[in-house]
Amino acid sequence: MQVIDLHGARYKDVYGLLEPSCVHSEVPFEVITGKSSTMKNIVSEIVRKFDLRAKEKIGNMGSMVIYENKR
């Protein structure tokens, strides 16, 4: 599983860091957000634009797993 580490990333740069993975990577992939609720919200909003969904990783509040949005 691909891992994208956003530690030290500025909020304004997150879209550019996530877009390539949302478009070209296989899901699921993991995004390390740290415990920042703002960063988690930004990640969730971005992946939603690509018809994906983000869920907090079980047992790790500082990481999210990105999945296909099943309907």
Mean pLDDT across all amino acids: 93
Distance between the termini: 23 Å
Number of strands: 4
Structural class: alpha+beta
Shape: globular
Strand content: 25-35%
Question: How would a textbook summarize the main sheet?
Answer: 4 strands, mixed
H/E order of the elements? Answer: EHEHEE
Our Rg estimate from Cα atoms comes to 11 Å
Counting DSSP H or I runs of 4 or more residues, the number of helices is 2
Low-confidence stretches: none
Percent of residues in helices = 25-40%
Order of neighbouring strands in the sheet with most strands: 1-2-4-3
How are the elements arranged and paired?
Layout: E1 3-5, H1 14-24, E2 29-32, H2 37-48, E3 52-57, E4 60-68
Parallel strand pairs: 1-2
Antiparallel strand pairs: 2-4, 3-4
